[in-house]
């Protein structure tokens, strides 16, 4: 249980730091959040929990494959906000559009023979 708390605190600090930096500079905050910090933390926690380099490798490849459809979120969000959709609703709709992009991307990849 202690290890879970440490993971949560460190992961939360990354998000809190990015949020605080965004109030001063959106560019620097964007740099922080564009770094694969979440992926790095997840990979580190996975390795700490399992000691398995194979699991880390497999997760890394899986992350690579889903980066492309995740970019849909960052296209949809500003478009929706510019269209007058409230920020909370734009976040929800952007997540929904991104989920559809994931589903379509994975279906297309599988139909092409990729084992994802």
Supply database-style keywords.
flat; 116 residues; 0% strand; mainly alpha
Low-pLDDT runs of 5+ residues are none
Coarse shape: flat
Largest sheet: none
The run of helices and strands is HHHHH
Global mean pLDDT: 89
Approximate helicity band: over 70%
Structural description of this entry:
Helices cover 85% and strands 0% of the residues. It is mainly alpha-helical and 116 residues long. The chain has a domain at 52-116. The protein starts with a helix and ends in a 5-residue tail after the last helix.
Secondary-structure topology with pairs:
Layout: H1 2-22, H2 26-34, H3 37-50, H4 53-82, H5 87-111
Helix pairs in contact: 1-2, 3-4, 4-5
Give me a quick take on this structure.
By secondary structure, the chain is mainly alpha-helical.
């Amino acid at each position: 249980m202690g290890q879970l708390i440490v993971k949560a605190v460190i992961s939360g600090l990354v998000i809190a730091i990015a949020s605080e930096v965004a109030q001063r500079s959106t560019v620097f905050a964007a740099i922080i959040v564009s770094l694969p910090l979440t992926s790095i933390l997840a990979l580190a926690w996975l390795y700490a929990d399992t000691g398995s380099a194979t699991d880390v490798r497999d997760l890394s490849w899986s992350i690579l494959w889903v980066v492309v459809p995740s970019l849909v979120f960052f296209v949809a969000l500003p478009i929706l906000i510019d269209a007058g959709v409230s920020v909370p609703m734009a976040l929800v709709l952007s997540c929904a559009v991104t989920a559809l992009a994931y589903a379509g991307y994975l279906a297309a990849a599988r139909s092409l023979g990729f084992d994802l």
